[in-house]
Amino acid sequence: MSSSHPAAAYSRAPGREIELDVATQDCQIHMGPQHPATHGVMRVLLKADGEVLSGAQTHLGYLHRSAEKIGEMVDWLQYLPYTDRYDYLCAMNNNLGYSLGVEKLLGLEAPERAQYLRVILSELNRIASHLFAVGTYGLDLGAFTPLFTALRDREIVLDLFERICGARLTYSFIRPGGLWNDAPEGWLEDVAAFLDLFEKRWHEYWTLVVENRIFIERTADVGVLSAEQAIDWGCSGPMLRGSGVDWDLRRDQPYQVYDRLEFEVVKGSGYRGSVGDCFDRTFVRMFEMTESIRIVRQCLEQMEPGPVHNPEVKSVIRPAPGSAYCGIENPRGELGHYLVSDGSKIAVRVRVRAPSFCNLSVAEHLMPGSMLGDAAAIIGSVDIVVGETDR
Amino acid sequence: MKAAGHVSWGGGGQIEAAQRIAARAAEAGLPLQLHLPNLPPLAEEGEARRLARKPREENPEYEWRGDPYLQVMDPAVVCDLLRWLREQCGFVQLYDLSAVDPAADAPELWVVYGLLNLAEKVRLELRLGLNKEHLSVPSVVAVHQAADWHEREAAEMFGIVFEGHPDPRALLLPEDWDGFPLRKDYEFPDQYQGISCT
Amino acid sequence: MPGWLLTVWAAVVAMVVVFTFLTIMVMFSVWMERKVAGFIQHRVGPMRAGGFHGWAQSIADSIKLLFKEDLILIGADRKLFQIAPALVMATATAMFVVLPFAPGWQVADADLGVFLILALASVTTIGVIMAGWGSYNKWSVYGAMREAAQVASYEIPLALSLIPPILHYGTFSLATATEAQAGWGGMQWYVFSSAAPVAWLSFPLFFIAALAENKRAPFDLPEAESELVAGFHTEYTGIRFSFFFLEEYAAMFVMGAVGAALWFGGWNFPGIHLLEPGSALLQVLALFAFVAKAMALVFVMMWVRWTVPRLRIDQVMTLGYKYLTPLSMAVVLIAAFWEFGLHLIQD
């Protein structure tokens, strides 16, 4: 790259000969911060030789809201609303991750009914989040309709959430010690009705988006991430499973009542291309939705009436000193909270290990060698939420 | 149907794993020291004892709750250590790397490495004390690529120098940001580039 | 009135009529596109402006566009930047000149009508390249380069796929070709005629190539919003932007109209032979039939756009050169033999 002759940069691509002594230079383009395919305010500096990318560099920080610093300045419970805001597409799961971390430091557990409800809520939110991911992925590839179709069904989930907690996006509903309240009357029946409806509609997405010939052409063999690479780069969630790694925290390090539930861990198999390509990641998301349906159904069956909040947890809590890491399986991967307490009512450190952050770090290494249009396909398949990468 | 989830959820076998690794490290002559939590669950602890808990300074038998961790006694060996853990003990993924500033007047910062063994399904937490006078630690990017962005973040937030990092630019903050925001002695700026922050 | 003045007068009238029709048609198409998109996406589309199903939405939009600030970047090539929308607009309008709307309702029955449309369609590309190059924006340049590559490749299959109907009717004139389809009570369309198999082979090729030529999804690479922001018209605002918009819908209508005129009988409709030739009723019904057929094809273009994702540039090129071009050549050969065979049978 630092060769003295400018044409040397052009000829470094193998099998290419420069016949004319023409000085050429790769084109540097900024994808973002305001760009439709970056899913938020993020910038990717692309280096392109015509339509072929020769380099990419991700620049973050446009949405940095100092969540970790805020965590050291407010009460343990006051921090809960901030967790909603890092991955705003699955706030229930974020609440759950933080609450579990605090519960671990406190040395207590939520009542059983609360645990079941937590699982139901986080799986419903997983469906909503994966729907949005598949929909926006269609948008990245130039198809508008999947997003609107996805929003139609996501809306039902959001309505369910609105009925149980009054909010549609930032819930703060799952909290240390249990839940804010029990599900209203008839809510569980409506969840079951939604599952029946969605199970039918799932095939609509499968045929409209995933089995679409052009979709397959655009995603198969694009952005291939090998299993070793995925592990080495700290990937998790569909990104890791898409590469064929059999790892799901819900099964392998079960929390709440997941150890009583039966479900499959979906992993990429190279169904339409090679293992670990963009198609496999979408494939994993699609089938995780059906597994979520299974999980919620089992929860609805097994649930029994009871309290939903542990009375040990008061409005001001002072966990014992110590540190705890709590990782849960978010729709995007492992959301970890590393909490450090010194016994006071304010945390010493709230470290958030965001799944998008680790998954995105590998994206810039998948891009070189692919086409400009693939940049959008790769970023979309990572399924980032910039609120989470920047926190 | 199995019993209801237990407090050591997710950490099922974590204490045993930490003990096993500590023993193997001692055999291999690696400077690791095991720390185990010694507080019972809240319900068993009792109100009187809970109120009698004392802070670290006043309590020589420091009681704490949470995850076990292995203290790395020598920062210089951290790369070798992680490589050993990766190759000999199967901790193939570095899921997290961050730092903690326990208090403004504490002499040390901690650098925390979170490692995951996918085959045995256990986590391991390594903690490294860094003197605030000399915040320098070797970069582990050569061992785990995942450390790349985590180290950049820790560097700008805590002022730790990760020696040998291939790309030590700021990640989330502007390049010209003053101070290290996650340090306890950080003072909030009044203005940034002439724009008032108050 | 001297002869030359009459010509000028006729030209002015024709210009006004064509432009008015084009504007109304584009406004209707935009409204229709939004309604179609809404229908496909479980939405309702515009509902407020004007009252009934937002019929005045496009009028409101055009007024908004007219009053928007006209921005030109400091680094932009002002001349190219300003000429480009005008050039694009002018060629789009000019294509309407040869469209046979109804018997006798045609501005100019050019002998080489089909040729003229193909030629003007490629001039549009030059306008787009000028726009992209003059915008002082790398994304726009990318859009322009993609347009150049894509349109140049798809002109070959587009032109070749037009040859079968031309061979069948032995004319380049759209009006003559339409008149030749008036038999069988107005139903002797090319797709039902003695050369029907060839028609059904060539029409899909024509339609795909026309989609690519018009930069419609799945070939909307020059303005691929998720990749190139908005491609060649990223930096355009207000009225200049609306010219590109107008051109897109006008070109869609023209391609739909060419498809309708050559394959689907143009203005002919069942029962046209029962009406007195030249009567007002026939003229109006013929106009309606022609526009309806063209709009039906435009609807299919919209339907495709709201259903499929976008191809990648190398896939577009592969499709154009490796599949469509050889296929259209084969279809031309088949058409030639077919017509020869028909000729032998008739003799």
Word description of this protein:
The complex is a heterotrimer of chains A (391), B (198) and C (347). Chain A has 391 residues and is an alpha+beta fold. Chain A has a single domain (65-390), classed as Orthogonal Bundle (Cytochrome-c3 Hydrogenase, chain B). In chain A, 46% of the residues lie in helices and 12% in strands. Chain A contains 15 helices and 8 strands. The longest helix of chain A has 29 residues, at 112-140. Chain A is globular. Residues 1-12 of chain A have low confidence and may be disordered. Chain B has a 5-stranded mixed beta sheet with strand order 1-2-5-4-3. In chain B, strands 6-7 form a two-stranded parallel ribbon. In chain B, strand 8 and strand 9 (195-196) form a beta hairpin. The longest helix of chain B is centred in the N-terminal third of the chain and has 15 residues, at 14-28. By secondary structure, chain C is mainly α. Chain C contains 12 helices and no strands. The termini of chain C are far apart. Chain C is 69% helix and 0% strand. Chain C has helices spanning 3-40, 57-66, 78-95, 113-134, 138-169, 174-179, 183-186, 196-213, 225-228, 238-263, 280-305, 313-346. Chain C is globular, with a radius of gyration of 21 Å. Chains in contact: A-B, A-C.
Strands, helices and their partners?
The complex is a heterotrimer of chains A (391), B (198) and C (347).
Chain A: H1 6-11, E1 27-31, E2 43-49, E3 52-59, H2 67-71, H3 80-84, H4 91-106, H5 112-140, H6 145-165, E4 174-175, E5 178-179, H7 187-210, H8 213-219, H9 227-232, H10 238-242, H11 249-252, H12 278-302, E6 322-330, E7 333-341, E8 349-353, H13 355-366, H14 372-382, H15 386-390
Antiparallel strand pairs in A: 1-2, 2-3, 4-5, 6-7, 7-8
Helix pairs in contact in A: 4-5, 5-6, 5-12, 5-14, 6-7, 7-12, 12-14
Chain B: H1 14-28, E1 32-35, H2 42-45, H3 47-52, E2 69-72, H4 78-88, E3 93-100, E4 108-117, E5 122-131, E6 136-138, H5 147-158, E7 161-163, E8 191-192, E9 195-196
Chain C: H1 3-40, H2 57-66, H3 78-95, H4 113-134, H5 138-169, H6 174-179, H7 183-186, H8 196-213, H9 225-228, H10 238-263, H11 280-305, H12 313-346
